[in-house]
Amino acid sequence: MDTIKNYVETLFLEFPNTKEVQRAKQEILTIMEDHYLALLDEGKSEHEAIGQVISEFGSVDELREELEFATREREPENGIEEEEMYQYLNERKKDTKGLSLGVSGCLLAVGALIGLSIRGAEMMGLLLFFVIIAISVGIIIYNGLQFSKNNVVLNDRYISVDLNKEAQKLKQGYQKSFQVSLVFGICLCVLSVSPIFFFQMFTYAEYGIPVMFFFLAIGVFLIMYGSINYGSFDKFIKEKYFIADEDKLGPNAMQAKYGESARTKHLLERVYWPTIVLIYFGWSFLTRSWGLSWMIFVMAGIFYSVLEAIFVKK
To answer: Quick one: DSSP state of residue 238?
Structure first.
């Protein structure tokens, strides 16, 4: 069923996000799902039913004719070029490597401290620990800033259908590398305790602890590097406009994501939480119940979700 939903979403990527289009998309999805269920009742397998539903549906050109869209929606002038996407992904890969190395370095620093302490060189271990930590934290901060910088350059710019499809191809091509790095990373993390048992056989279990942190460092590096790179492609796949920060949508991304509810969403974000903060301080000063007034934020979070569900339609 998810395959059919994804297929319909892909078909409608090039059409404007209007009520008519949304209505037509829902109608077509309902028809296809009903046909899919009918084929299952006839004894078809899931793959056979999905294939038949898609093949019988028709092409995008036929869909355009049926919906009477004579021309394709004009693409904004600030669209992201393919070269810019490749440059972003390459820069993102470098930054991801730096972040992963920084986190792994912190684990290695702990391993070095423990290893040298076991050998009786506590002061040397502390010195090496702080040196590695300082370098690792510096690498994390630098690459974190580069992450933000690269995102800002493309923020709120249009992602064309062709660019979306190219990003999907790249993601599929990277999937095998992602799976390998994830599997090896998890295996190394799980097996990281094995050196302790190995050295235990020779009554030197403590020597296995530094090796454990070495295994963890490599495993965490592989998991972080593969996962972040794999998720980078989604920046060009899931939305029509590039989103640098999910909590701070640009005007174009806000309009594309929320449609006619964009202004309501924008107003809600700007007014709601400042109002809650004022209520919190006012209530706390008047009642002197600082120990309980923080519950206002818990209730406000729940109430915000309710308001968003009522007034903001995605």
So the answer is: S
The answer to whether residues 212 and 196 touch, using CB atoms and an 8 Å cutoff, is: yes
> pLDDT (tens digit, 9 = 90+) per residue, 167-223?
999 999 999 999 999 999 999 999 988 888 887 777 677 888 888 999 999 999 999
Q: How far apart are CA 142 and CA 148, in angstroms?
A: 10
Residues, the chain, total? 314
What token pair was written down for 150?
């690269």
Using CB atoms within 10 A of its CB, is residue 216 exposed (0-12), middle (13-18) or buried (19+)? buried
DSSP state of 205: G
pTM beyond 0.70: no
Cα separation, 69 vs 11, in Å, equals 13
Residues 6+ apart with CB under 8 A from 188: 215, 216, 218, 219, 222
CA 145 to chain centroid: 18
Please tell me the distance from the alpha carbon of residue 246 to that of residue 253, in angstroms, as a whole number: 10
Of 5, 58, 61, 14, the C-alpha closest to 33 is 5
Nearest alpha carbon to residue 13 among 1, 25, 4: 25
d(CA 57, CA 68): 17
Contact present, 28 and 15 (Cβ < 8 Å): no
